[in-house]
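Page 47, continued from p. 46.
Same chain as before, 177 aa.
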Amino acid sequence: MFRFCPQCRKPITLKGSKLFECPCGFHFYINPAPCALALLTNNRNQLLFVVRGRDPRKGYLDLPGGFLEQGESAEQGIVRELKEELGVALKKIRYIASYPDRYLYNSINYHVISSAFFGELSDSEARKMKAADDVSAIEWHSVKKVPVGRFAFPSMKKIVYDFRKDRPVSRWDKGSS
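Result:
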């Protein structure tokens, strides 16, 4: 990432896995980039996936979401991303868990930490959705049978597995035994 100190311009060294250090006293820590993603379901027990329209992993399945902007909370970020990518304005989302991953882009392997949220879409909300921004298409898959081989990123397997194992009770589950 750095070869020379941005302060004194002397060569800089990587100490360990996340600290760049220079004799002039400059320190730079490589921390994960925060992201937010959503697991969205419908009343047919299906999970929403988006097809990535850009690299990295163009054409692969992803969960809707993306990188947080400066000063934005994870909750604000997922609401913004869902509006940008799908044109949907979800009012109720629930935090599930966070997941580390790697994001290889332009030959740089970024560490990311994704905050996962759960939300439900009514039929009318789902019909209004349109792929936009960096999403080329929308696909629904049964919660019980997801195409793992088409996932864009390694953490998605764990996210979907955890979701299926500890799935929040949805409004569609109420009244069913």
